Amino acid sequence: MGEENPHRSSPEPSAGIYNLRRAVEIISSLISLTHSTKVFAAKWQSIRSKLEELNSGLMATENCEYSSGNPEISGLVSAILVTVDDCYDHARRCVDLSYSGKLLMQSDLNVILTKIGRHVKTLSDMYTAGILTQGYALVVSKPGLGACKDDMRFYVRDLLNRMKVGDSGMKRQALLNLYEVVVDDEKYVKVMLDVDDVVSVLVSFLHSSETEIQEGSAKVVSVIAGFDSYKVVLVGAGVIAPLIRVLECGSELGKQSAARCLMKLTQNSDNAWSVSAHGGVTALLKICSGVDCKVELVGPACGVLRNLIGVEEIKRFMVEEGAILMFIRLARSKDEALQMMSIEFLQSIAFGDELIREMVIREGGIRALVRVVDPKWSHSSKTREVALRAIENLCFSSAIAVNILMNYGFVDQLMYFIRNGEVSIQELALKVAFRLCGTSEEAKKAMGDAGFMPELVKLLNAKSFEVREMAGEALSGMVLVSRNRKRFAQDDRNIGMLLQLLDSEDGNSGNRRFLLPILTSLTSCNSVKKKIVNSGYLKNIEKLAQAEVSDAKKLVRKLSTNRFRSMLNGIWHS
Asked: Which of 27, 63, 161, 297 could form a disulfide with 55 if both were Cys (CB 3.0 to 4.6 A apart)?
């Protein structure tokens, strides 16, 4: 026999299929009619929601295996038709305002709502019992780009029903489809939350023993959590406790989505106590302490912990549980992303807390940071910048920390990046050097020995005002140390550059407030006095003194000692 022509007319549908399709059509019409009702708006909204849920379930059922001849399904559809006809009659009377009494109508609507809810549950139970299978179930097509809200809502409602009444495969596919639409078009998030039960179903799926269903739900919930106005809906639905259970017992992918979701929900320390109360801090610390740490999971877990630091009691608990040493170990990781996240965590937890800052130092935090900065190791500029900022924030309020830094060769590292670093890290290294210079005389001596002063002189001519200012202030501090002044004076180029910059007319006149005090400090060396007096720049200094520039007058007085007065008089009167 030849193959049947696929375009030939289909045989007449069975009575069961006919009734099923009739039920779908009547319910669709009834849903439209309920929008026109003029009374009992809240009640009709509840009925409409249940009708949409029922209709999606029936549409999914229409071509399921065994649906056409199964007596249980046929009986259900017949009962649904009776209920829908009754509901249609009541809707028409609420449109025409032709009902006899409000209390009676309200009572009738309550009965109808209960019946529809019972039909939805019966249909769901049939899927659960395996009476219906998804083999040939119709799938509602995803609305096209720019679809109206009603089409989007219908699609979401259909996915919801598949999640509620479908078998495991149907649930997984519905979750995947839901994730795709909320990622592609954020309007679906609002539409989804307008559909009753979506959030509660997603939260219930987080408890699922089936890995893929739990993962799929966590992914969708994480997307929703990215919208500030919807966070309260998730929290109100009780999402935090199951998310933490996923962190404790879920798959790797499930944990990642759960951690990302919690990171969004705890921004600005929001919901911190709820996370803590359900054991979230312990679960997160356990993830970060794992031997086989992966940045995809540890990253968001660390992010949640950083968000919770703002609550003092939770911060103290983290410290008691060994968080400081844990994150110092992560800072030694070979993965740069983990290094950066752990260093930023340590900065955050120690911010404004001297005891924790001392603990970071005592547990070896400085050595870990210096290792990241060390030019001998292969780290990106971004990672080094994070480490330098951490050193700046953690170390310069403590003489012990500064001494540890210098013992680990940090001064030489700074010098390397000021000479050879990219612009961003060079400027940051200069800022850190400026801060280091202000900590102690020993730091100034170490910087002088490392060759900072000639480099700082060069930076006095930089385009950036901030760079010139930091270089000038650092150099001003360094030449207050006798050993540094002698070292500086040994190189004629240093003095010549300062005098040249003082005489320049290139718009960097702001340098004078650093240059003149630096030169004044250097005049304690007779060799410097002689170089200034014999230079061609002395008259410029005199003009500034005559213009009542106080620092210039101080410099002139320094130069006007008995030994040099005759030389000055000769120069000024020549």
From this structure: 27
67: Cβ–Cβ under 8 A, 6 or more apart, which residues?
16, 17, 20, 61, 73, 132
90: CB partners within 8 A, 6+ apart: 99, 105, 108, 109, 112
Mean per-residue pLDDT, 289-297 = 82
d(CA 228, CA 133): 39
Q: Do the beta carbons of residue 331 and residue 342 sit within 8 Å? A: yes
DSSP per position, 272-290? HHHHHHTTHHHHHHHHHT-
Contact 461/421 with Cβ under 8 angstroms?
A: no
Q: Summarize the confidence of residues 282-290 as an average pLDDT.
A: 93
| 465/468 Cα distance (integer angstroms) | 5
Q: Are 224 and 200 in contact (CB under 8 A)?
A: no
Closest CA to 220 of 233, 202, 235, 193: 202
φ/ψ of residue 280, rounded to 5? -65, -40
Is residue 431 helix, strand or coil? helix
Confidence band, pLDDT 50/70/90 cuts, at residue 52: confident
Helix (H, G, I), strand (E, B), or coil: what is residue 23? helix
Tokens of 122: 């019966």
Lowest mean pLDDT among 224-233, 460-469, 508-517: 508-517
Mean pLDDT of 345-358: 95
Structure tokens belonging to residue 53: 């849920």
The mean pLDDT of 16-34, rounded to a whole number, is 85
CA distances for 46 relative to 55, 112, 180, angstroms = 14, 11, 28
Compute the average pLDDT of residues 431-448. Answer: 94
* More confident: 532 or 331: 331
283, 248 in Cβ contact below 8 A?
A: yes
51 vs 268, residue with greater confidence: 51
pTM listed for this prediction: 0.74
Residue 65 is classified by DSSP as: T
Cα distances from 348 to residues 344, 380, 394, in angstroms, run 6, 22, 10
